[in-house]
Amino acid sequence: FPVTIYLKEVYSHGGTQIDTAPLYSSLDAEKIIGRTFPEDEYPDILISTKMGYRYSSAIFPFNRVNSRISKYMNGGSPVKQFKVSPELELKSSLNRLNRKKVHTYFLHDVDEPNRIDLFLQDLILLKQKGSTREIGIATRSRHMYVPEEIDALQIPYHLVEHYSERVFCKFQVHSLFADGQISNRCIAAKIEKLKNIPQVSSIVLGTTNISHYKQIWEMVQLNG
Questions:
Q1: How many Å apart are CA 146 and CA 159, to the nearest integer?
Q2: Is the CB of residue 207 less than 8 Å from the CB of residue 213?
Q3: Separation of alpha carbons 42 and 164, rounded Å
Q4: pLDDT reported for residue 13
């Protein structure tokens, strides 16, 4: 209930793009978003989600208890998928999100090229079918190969310049507030830097409560 209020408050302040994944809160995040923002009532909201971990929906589609048991059995760490159907993964996410399609469907936390090769054609097919508007890669690796078919790259702030030199797809940038640096002066400098990089299409803001969201949102708005 408090999370729903928080999400509605974010929406009222202009937050119409939401980034999530089955990995977040062991299936809870997608379900909460789906209950809060059903597509029929909120067609203006663009939701992106991800695939690629063993205890996500394709393995345990029924409830979060099994998901958390799996997480515990895996030593508390998610295990990446190498044999799974992206179509089934996305179908489960769409059911939880109460949507017919998502804006961007990301391969989650890629740090080895063979995972891209393994799933790329399936992701392209999902885009062709209209289940997702875009396909993307989320990575924290400096040296990831990005195929020309990829529409969006989700990366931390410190990798933006590195990828902008050799990749031409859209960038979704996160971790602007890393290391506790949330002063207006710091954010102004970071945003000014991002303005000069044409590939940057959006900034991903990770917040834990409405006060924090308002603080960050005001900084971003103030700095354009």
A1: 14
A2: yes
A3: 33
A4: 79
Sheet containing 17-19: which strands, arranged edge to edge? 17-19, 46-51, 102-107, 132-138, 152-156, 170-174, 200-203
- C-alpha of 7 from chain center: 16
Which three-class secondary structure state does DSSP give residue 174? strand
| Distance of alpha carbon 147 from alpha carbon 222, whole angstroms | 36
Residues in the chain: 224
Give residue for tokens 């409830």.
63
Q: What is the DSSP track for 47-91?
A: EEEEE-BTTSTTTS-S-HHHHHHHHHHTTTS--B-SS--HHHHHH
- 51 bridge partner residues: 107
Which residues are registered as beta bridge partners of 137?
107, 153
* Amino acid identity, position 76: G
List per-block mean pLDDT (blocks of 10 residues) for the chain, which spans 224 residues.
Answer: 81 88 81 94 95 56 46 53 84 95 94 89 97 97 93 96 92 82 77 92 81 76 74
